[in-house]
From TrEMBL:
Organism: Pseudovibrio denitrificans
Transmembrane segments: none
Protein name: Acetyltransferase (GNAT) family protein
Residues of the N-acetyltransferase domain: 32-110
Lineage of the organism: Bacteria, Pseudomonadati, Pseudomonadota, Alphaproteobacteria, Hyphomicrobiales
Entries under InterPro entries matching the protein: Acyl_CoA_acyltransferase, GNAT_dom, YoaP-like_dom
Domain YoaP-like per the UniProt entry, residue ranges: 204-249
Molecular functions (GO terms): acyltransferase activity, transferring groups other than amino-acyl groups
Short name of any one Pfam family annotated for the protein: Acetyltransf_1
CDD domains: NAT_SF (cd04301)
This protein's UniProt keywords: Transferase
Source organism, top-level taxon: Bacteria
Length: 264
């Protein structure tokens, strides 16, 4: 198994795994590369299998992480994906081991990652991480957990920011979508598909683009790739809700059909 690390020296020549051939997301793919290129200076790392595949892990210092996490002396694991025929071959454990090694070399106290208490799209697989020794150190009102793995005998603690604990009280009516360019799929689906789906149903929509570190770290949701709210209530991290064919089903399921999503 050969893995390579992306950096300023090869970012232009290497793919970043997601949305490799999705022409609709070409702009988002470039935005993700631009975002990634800006993170290397803070110690961010992107390690992937040396194949044209979705097998990779991203991580960096939590202090510079694009999420509302308070975890000094920790590395924040962001996107981590092993897909298709590459599953079951040990890539996940191998990539995590490289992250633990990086934490040890950096003198960090541990690793943290953001996962759903139940599996949520575009978040870490909490069940798998817990099997690797991660433990819950904080949780949000929306059912999102912060998981931590200590490194060596080091102590340390981690938590979500105060803004996250206030997320249950989000005000405003209609749809509110938070997103960043950490994922190549968000730009197209949020700025085009979600807008169209909301317009067809006559629903008010506010889009909050987390386009700076400060905005991401002060967000009310830990899921800064994509989070959707309806009248202050958390709906989903599933980006496919933006698609017209999936919108109604996901909304109704998430809200248990207690909230009408008819035109207002």
């Amino acid at each position: 198994m050969t893995y390579i690390a992306l950096g300023e020296h090869n970012l232009c020549d290497e793919h970043t795994c997601c949305a490799i051939s999705d022409k609709k997301c070409a702009q988002g793919y470039q935005l993700k590369k631009d975002w990634l290129g800006q993170q290397f200076a803070s110690g961010y790392q992107f390690i992937k299998l040396d194949e044209r595949a979705k097998v990779f892990i991203e991580f960096g210092p939590a202090e510079a992480g694009w999420a509302p996490v308070v975890a000094p002396r920790h590395l924040l694991v962001n996107c981590f994906w092993v897909s298709g025929k590459y599953k079951g071959q040990g890539h996940g454990k191998a990539l995590l081991a490289k992250t633990v090694e990086a934490a040890e070399q950096a003198g960090a106290d541990g690793l943290v990652t953001i996962a759903g208490a139940k599996k949520m799209p575009f978040l870490s697989d909490g069940k798998w991480f817990k099997q690797q020794g991660f433990e819950v150190c904080d949780s949000s009102p929306d059912g999102i957990e912060l998981l931590r793995l200590g490194v060596g005998d080091a102590g340390g603690s981690a938590s979500f920011s105060e803004n996250v604990q206030k997320s249950a009280g989000l005000s405003g009516e209609g749809l509110v979508a938070y997103y960043s360019n950490r994922c190549p799929f968000t730009d197209h689906h949020v700025t085009q598909n979600l807008k169209e789906a909301a317009q067809r149903r006559g629903l008010p929509l506010k889009i909050v683009h987390l386009d700076t570190l400060e905005k991401a770290q002060s967000a009310p949701t830990p899921a800064t790739i994509f989070s959707l709210y309806w009248s202050g209530r958390f709906v989903t991290t599933d980006l496919s809700v933006c698609m017209d064919s999936r919108f109604d089903k996901i909304m109704q399921k998430a809200l248990n059909e207690k909230v009408s999503i008819e035109a207002v």
